[in-house]
Design a protein that fits this description.
The protein has a three-stranded mixed sheet. By secondary structure, the protein is mainly alpha-helical. It is built from eight helices and five strands, in the order αααββαβααααββ. 7% of the residues are buried. Helix content is 62%, strand content 8%. It has two domains: 103 residues, 2-Layer Sandwich (Herpes Virus-1), CATH 3.30.40; 95 residues. Helix 6 packs antiparallel against helix 8 and helix 7 packs across helix 8. Keywords: Membrane, Metal-binding, Transferase, Transmembrane, Transmembrane helix, Ubl conjugation pathway, Zinc, Zinc-finger. Its main location: membrane. It is a multi-pass membrane protein.
Length: 226
């Protein structure tokens, strides 16, 4: 053995560890476990929405979610709830205490709703059906009114009493008008209900925080339960 290694036992020990595969594998395994735990600990304190932990806002645990899904920034949570128009956690179904206000006024909401291509196509198709149905119904009624005398004359010639002919014409007119009104009502109701459902579900949500939690709290390592 060289004098250099004799004078420095630490080098001898390091050389033995490097030349021993078993010791090397165990050391690598321990390092991997330590790195994995460090990664898990870091991930457990990240916001589940933005996946960060900035020093500008503390993390909170507002629902029943556990593990890495438990922590979230208040601003991220409110932004997500407003975008999804819901007041509960989509994972654990916990319902938050929140104030809901309509995002748009009545007429403004309809203008915003109809800007969407699908909604605009829906309204246009229903309007087209309504126009065609109105034209067909109007033409049919005009034909019956104009041909009233002809129908009465032909019915009398065939031996049908005039009162029965008039009753049949009136019943037919009532049926046509009733079908027209019901169809138009269904078309209009479909549009109004679709828009109204969207309007009532499009709300601004602001969480109601307990007095112990201030919206201005900061701290990168703060994790608060509410």
């Amino acid at each position: 053995m060289s004098p250099e290694f004799t004078k420095n036992p630490l080098k001898i020990e390091n050389l033995q560890v490097e030349n021993n595969p078993t010791v090397h594998n165990e050391t690598q395994l321990i390092e991997n476990v330590i790195n994995q735990k460090s990664t898990n600990n870091a991930a457990s304190s990240l916001c589940r929405i933005c996946h960060t932990n900035t020093a500008n806002e503390c993390l909170i645990s507002p629902c029943n979610c556990k593990g890495t899904q438990a922590h979230i920034h208040l601003s991220c949570l409110e932004r997500w709830l407003n975008q999804s128009s819901r007041n509960y956690c989509e994972l654990c179904m916990f319902r938050y205490s929140a104030i809901e206000t309509k995002r748009y006024k009545l007429w403004q909401s309809f203008k915003m709703w109809i800007r969407h291509p699908l909604n605009r196509a829906h309204v246009c198709s229903d309007l087209l059906i309504g126009v065609l149905l109105t034209m067909a119904t109007s033409g049919l009624i005009m034909c019956i009114v104009k041909g009233y005398e002809y129908f009465v004359m032909e019915g009398t010639r065939l031996g049908v009493q005039k009162k029965w002919i008039i009753s049949a014409i009136v019943a037919f007119l009532i049926t046509v008008i009733t079908v027209f009104v019901i169809t138009m009502f269904v078309l209009l109701r479909d549009i109004i209900l679709t828009w109204y459902k969207w309007w009532t579900s499009t709300v601004n949500i602001q969480l109601i925080l307990p007095p112990s939690l201030d919206r201005t709290l900061t701290g990168k390592t703060d994790i608060l339960n509410i």
